[in-house]
Amino acid sequence: MHAWGNLKEAAAPLPADPAALAALRTAIGDRPVLLAASTHPGEEAIVLAAHRLLLAEFPGC
């Protein structure tokens, strides 16, 4: 089996509701965001460990 490229990067962005996106941006403000989407089993633990490390630099997040 051969894999050529990354489908996530090759696909066009999904449509988004501009009003919902604006509301989300307002709710988040200028805080940093850590997003782990489309994870595989076990990766959530890695993300949580990274979050714990980042708390030292970004307290309260």
Describe the structure.
The protein is mainly α and 61 residues long. It contains 3 helices and no strands. The model has no long low-confidence stretch (mean pLDDT 88).
Annotation keywords:
flat; 3 helices; single chain; 0% strand; mainly alpha; 44% helix
- What multimeric state do the chains show? single chain
Strand content: under 5%
Give the overall pLDDT as a whole number: 88
Would you report the number of β strands?
0
- Total number of helices: 3
Helix content: 40-55%
- Overall radius of gyration: 16 Å
In the predicted model, the low-confidence regions spanning at least 5 consecutive residues are none
Q: What structural class should be given to the helix and strand makeup?
A: mainly alpha
Return the string of H and E elements. Answer: HHH
Map the helices and strands:
Elements: H1 7-10, H2 18-28, H3 43-54
Task: Summarize the model shown.
With 61 residues, this protein is mainly alpha-helical. It has helices spanning 7-10, 18-28, 43-54.
